[in-house]
Here is the input.
Amino acid sequence: MSLLRVESLQMFLDSAAGPVRAVDDVSFEIEPGGTFALIGESGCGKSMTALSLMRLLPDVGRVRGGRVLLNGRDLLALTEAQMREVRGGEMAMIFQEPATSLNPVLSVGRQIGEVLARHGALRGAAAARRARELLDAVGIPDARRRLEEYPFQFSGGMRQRVMIAMALAGDPALLIADEPTTALDVTIQAQVLELLGALQRERGMGMLLITHDLGIARQLASRVGVMYAGELVEVASRIDFFAAPKHPYSIKLFAALPRPERRESVLETIAGSVPSLTTMFSGCRFAPRCPRVWSRCREEIPAWHGAETGYAVRCHLYDAVDAQLAGGGPAAQAPTEESASSLQAVEAAPLLEVDDLKVHFPIRQGVFRRAVGQVRAVDGVSLGLTSGRTLALVGESGCGKTTVGKAILQLLKPTGGSVRFRGEELTALPAARLRRLRGEMQIVFQDPYASLDPRMRIGDIIEEGLSALGQGGTPPAKARRTAELIERVGLSATMLGRYPHEFSGGQRQRIAIARALAVAPRLLVCDEPTSALDVSVQAQILNLLKELQGALGLAYLFITHNIAVVEYLAHEVAVMYLGRIVERGAVEEILREPKHPYTEALLSAVPRLDADGRREAIVLKGDMPSPSQPPAGCHFHPRCPRAMPQCAAAYPAETRLGDTHRVRCFLYE
Amino acid sequence: MTPVLLWTDALVFLLVACGIASGIYISRREYLLASWHRVGESRAGMASLTLLVAFVVVGLIDSLHYRPRLEAASGQPGGYSGEVRSLLDVLLQPLRDGTEKTYSAPLAAHLYARETVELPDGSQARVFPRLKHGGAHLADVEAEWGRDVTLRTLRGAALAVLAGLTFVALAVLFAARRWGTGWQAAWRRIRRGETRFAWHAALAALGMLLLLAGPALSLAGGYHVLGTDKVGQDVLYLTLKSIRTGLVIGTLTTLVMLPFAVALGLVAGYVGGWVDDLIQYLYTTLNSIPGVLLIAAAVLMVQVAIDMHPDWFATAAQRADARLLALCLILGVTSWTGLCRLLRAETLKLRELEYVQAAQAFGASAARILGRHILPNVMHIVLISVVMDFSGLVLAEAVLSYIGIGVDPSTISFGTMINTARLELAREPVVWWSLLAAFVFMFVLVLAANLFADAVRDAFDPRLAGSRRSLPGKMA
Here is the structure.
């Protein structure tokens, strides 16, 4: 008997425009000890499915039909009091954001104790002992002391471990993990994923894993379900699914992923957007965006095909009757061969030269705000970039990569070092000269929601640079330029009068790019421009960036933590750790043959999709230290699996390994 | 007669001119107009605007001042009276002149206090004497009062209905011309609320207003509708006169306060460093002195200055007006700290947002960033706190009048009315009408201002704009 059985679950959200079919006819099963991964882009109903199972819906949500059987008991028929026994007891949940899912004013021990008292009837010394065991189980060292501590004293990864400990406190048979590692860094993500896998094996727990990352699903899941617009479109075992996905949407999702072998081609994108869930669907929900759509898709809602084989697809292409029409199942379309990258006309003279850049922030304390220490956010970074090239600056959060970007643009005053842009020293430039150069270097930010002023119209936003720098001439000329730009980034000029909130994340990012392009820059600092976007939208933005580089010869300083994007877009890579660049070189050198142990660990921690190149993940111990008190010697040595005595003594100097490849590690001296 | 322009009049008309100018500015800009159209769609907004307009009209009529010409003796050059009157005084002449001896209840024909009168037979008795004006036309109060009041009420209501229908007809005709439909169709759409502009809400509010004003007007011809106060002045007249004082204090004080609060708050938040320290120091210091003390000191100084220089002012009204203006200034200077603190905090938050950094990357100047990015994004806070302050200021005026440092005793205001009501409530039997009249008028004024500000804020928040239009109410 299966642990969890969901039968045609249907959940609507009431809205002014009518009911939103957030979860529509979703059925799946989870075996004891099995992991079912729900995959899909944002807004497809993954989280709403999980909340329906827990019966933790928002006020406007109503379960309209279906059954949720946990160990044979229908959860939807339980009273609220009985349901409280189930939540945290038989079924526990961990959320995406560990920072907000713990109560900041209660100690961790108290919060775990609450669950123990509720579901295990444990109190006092017995509860304390159990809580210690749980923290040990999730790999938090020094559990006795840490139980007394408060959430702010834990790092993000540690908080997520505490959340997992709390979820385990009721000894659940089923764990629902809603994007458990999305807010974490790759190396920390590797730790948490390994922990989840190990715990599950030990306890024989069932797990419902919700994720947008195909790599994570590949690593953890036993079965996979793909959701689109509120319904499941494909359910299969992990091996079958990753070998050959069948539904056109799944195929498109795979094709949209940036990969090194796609470097010379344009990424696949999915045209259009997810339909509004308030519509009454009379055909396939994916039909408007499907590359293999035919008349039947619009007229008839597809049924499940192949359920008996264990590989179920909701698509007319797999209807036995029409098999001949479908031509034996759709194959992934060959990517268009049109090359978008331009490697010709690479200028020899460097556009940007950064030498020994330092940005220190003083730590002030006391009544007189005296500086008692320094946060060495950036501590001696050297880079070079020529026109038409992309340099990827890779590292985990807190390593100082965004600070480098801002210091190059002089948005932050560097503490030391030099930044030369087209031969001019920016750090010593008078304000007026700097202002003229501002047009030549621009920035695109990470969060498309915070980077556009909500009270300005799109037209004014794009025009802003022109008016601020006094470019663009007369108002009609500016209006022409604005219209040209918005069409350049793939939007329509009729949208100029609208406000940012009317646009989706991907469209907003296009607007932000158009704004930066307005002043005709030569250098574009892209600060994680795709990390807030879905895979298919990310592909659109990457295509756009690549196309613009080809057409305009832009140089990109691409700040990111996403290795897949680096592989696709970058020509050169610099890896940062705690304010310093530990390794840099051409993209093939770094990604194929990483030398520095941190680069190796970083690359191996990324969940991969390709089965063959499955490297053993090097799981790093602990967290990144604080940049206010970096470890003596090499900053990485406390976490380094290959540390030597001399690593603690001094910071290694730069070693040249070939023309472009440089590394700072004693292993290569 | 000769027109008199008091200081506050000048500022009030300046404000009106600003309003008209911004109206013209807005009407030439499509996207601003669209936001104001959304205000027009809000029912609560339009109903409260109708009431506000009524208040403002009364206030404006009361701001047209003049000095009447004195009857000159033959051969001598005619002078002007020392008394400054307003257009409202002329319109309310009967109410103004119909003073009684002392308290009388609303619609009463007798005084509220007994008097010893000599009876025809020579003996003396303590009775409630007849009023000089209220119900003076009645021969036999017992027999005729009820009939007369009903009749006058009905006559007033009929007039109100007539006026209301005229307005409705005008609106329908206007709408029919605008939409190019027949008047029946236009009427149907207005009645069912299917119009974009919330005509039905505005007309309903206007109807209610007329239904109250009509009978009141009709009754005021023969009675004191809201009674009289201690010195026999008509309370309805007092409340109507108070509206101008309330509006002046509410708006002018805000006008004085806003530049301080907005400029200092934004600069402190955005520039930071020693500028921030200085501004914080300033408002923390100002805040830690009891506000009343500061106001009292300032008002008393102004009062002494005014008393020392009687030659500065030609009339008592001008002196009272100067004091009102001084009060506005002082209230404004002392009340900017709260808003300033809020704006500083909000600016600190906004300064770190990426769109501000994007503007910095364009080399935009601090003034440009503050004006184009930060100010529009804190405007909702300004709007809300201005409206909140409006009611607070009207009340502050009452408190200050209570300790004798408010408006000039000769200025009629809600504050002075409430202040005198203090004694009236302690009296036996209680005189309740003064307080009630002031309370109801103030309540309606403040409530209407609050609701209207809500509607404006919602309409100008681009994030709310889409969701509001799709409310199911519009589809029915």
